[in-house]
Write a structure and sequence with these properties.
Strand order of the largest sheet: 3-4-5-6-7
Shape: globular
Number of strands: 13
Radius of gyration: 21 Å
Helix content: 25-40%
Largest sheet: 5 strands, antiparallel
Strand content: 5-15%
Number of helices: 8
Structural class: alpha+beta
Order of helices and strands: EEEEEEEEHEEEHHHHHEEHH
Distance between the termini: 21 Å
């Protein structure tokens, strides 16, 4: 994630802010310029008060009324929803205060996801625009299903369903323990499930398919049988040599989606580190020189993945060490073997090529 600042007073602000705490101007995210814009109210709309957009008139996305979005649209736009919120097909029932809080958390994660996809130059098309190849989200509660049924988080032809319980820290931690996972985050769910969507868009019936099968396996293997085998037998004993997670061993598609999610974890975290000018320079150990790095490159603009992974390894070590100093679990509790590096590099190449094609 890039760093953002208030265009009026230059205060560093978070991506989710809709108010500058220093100058008290309203803030909104302008998607075309990908920056936060300081605003003053003018009738039923807002006007940019400084910077390149000074004098431009905007309105907030309609979901700003529920504190679920801070993205802007041109004041004259017919649309009421921003590019990120237009992807929603179903949102939770907002007559429940608990649902509102969970939906707000879901939107924060989803907006970060959409920002990353736009940074990558990937197409972000809503199903309202293209039902066949578009993307949509259903955010559902178990009570919306027939009695005894549960909402299953997953992907089906561009429709991503997420159980809103995943937005509750306690519920998500219970699920993590029950699933024997080392890591489970709301943003991670979005990144994993959208990986399935982009497999359809970037890999299926493409020139990349042969290389994909070499790296990830044959996606034509029966998915239901693979799922049953995984839950009956678990992951192979040597899975850590070839996969980023035990779940990735289940089927070729899940290996892709898990690796895709980690690709987004890595490049988004590195972009944040680059924006802060972070330098890692361990002062002890024989390997100190190998772990010294200045995170200066924006990974979204980096051509070769080898430069990305060379920066990621020292940064992950530093971040894990900082977390342990706070009594927290490792921020990134994974070891990336060479086989997974090759898979990550493949994803990076595919995304770079598609971005050039879209340009």
């Amino acid at each position: 994630m890039k760093l953002f600042n208030c265009t009026h007073c230059d205060q560093v602000v978070y991506f989710e802010n809709d108010l500058c705490e220093r100058c008290q101007h309203a803030l909104g995210f302008e998607v075309q310029q990908q920056q936060m814009v300081a605003l003053r109210p003018q009738g039923q709309q807002y006007v940019a008060v400084h910077g390149q957009e000074q004098g431009s008139a905007y309105k907030y996305c309609a979901n700003h009324a529920q504190q679920a979005c801070n993205w802007l649209l041109p004041a004259a736009a017919v649309e009421e929803l921003c590019q990120a919120c237009d992807l929603n097909r179903t949102i939770p029932k907002l007559n429940e205060p608990e649902h509102i809080a969970r939906w707000q958390s879901l939107e924060r994660a989803k907006h970060r996801l959409v920002f990353s996809l736009l940074q990558l130059g990937l197409p972000v098309v809503s199903k309202t625009e293209n039902e066949e190849t578009g993307l949509a989200f259903d955010f559902l509660a178990d009570e919306q299903k027939p009695e005894g049924e549960k909402v299953l988080t997953g992907h089906d032809n561009g429709l991503i369903t997420i159980n809103i319980k995943e937005a509750d820290d306690v519920e998500r931690e219970m699920a993590r323990k029950n699933m024997h996972e080392v890591y489970r985050t709301l943003l991670g769910h979005f990144r994993h499930e959208v990986g399935h969507y982009y497999w359809d868009r970037l890999i299926a019936d493409s020139p990349h398919l042969a290389e994909y099968r070499r790296l990830f396996g044959d996606e034509r293997a029966d998915y239901a049988q693979a799922l049953q085998r995984h839950y009956d037998q678990g992951a192979p004993a040597d899975w850590q040599e070839h996969f980023i997670s035990a779940y990735a061993t289940m089927h070729s598609w899940e290996d892709w989606a898990e690796t895709w999610a980690h690709y987004l974890h890595i490049i988004d975290t590195l972009q944040t580190a680059s924006a802060f000018g972070i330098r890692v320079q361990p002062r002890v150990g024989e390997e100190a020189d190998n772990l010294t790095v200045a995170v200066t490159q924006d990974p979204y603009q980096t051509e070769g993945f080898e430069d990305i992974i060379e920066q990621w390894t020292p940064l992950a070590l530093a971040l894990n060490s900082l977390n342990r100093s706070m009594g927290l679990k490792d921020l990134y509790p994974f070891v990336i073997p060479p086989a997974v590096v090759e898979k990550l590099a493949f994803i990076h190449t595919v995304c770079r090529q598609d971005a050039r094609h879209q340009a």
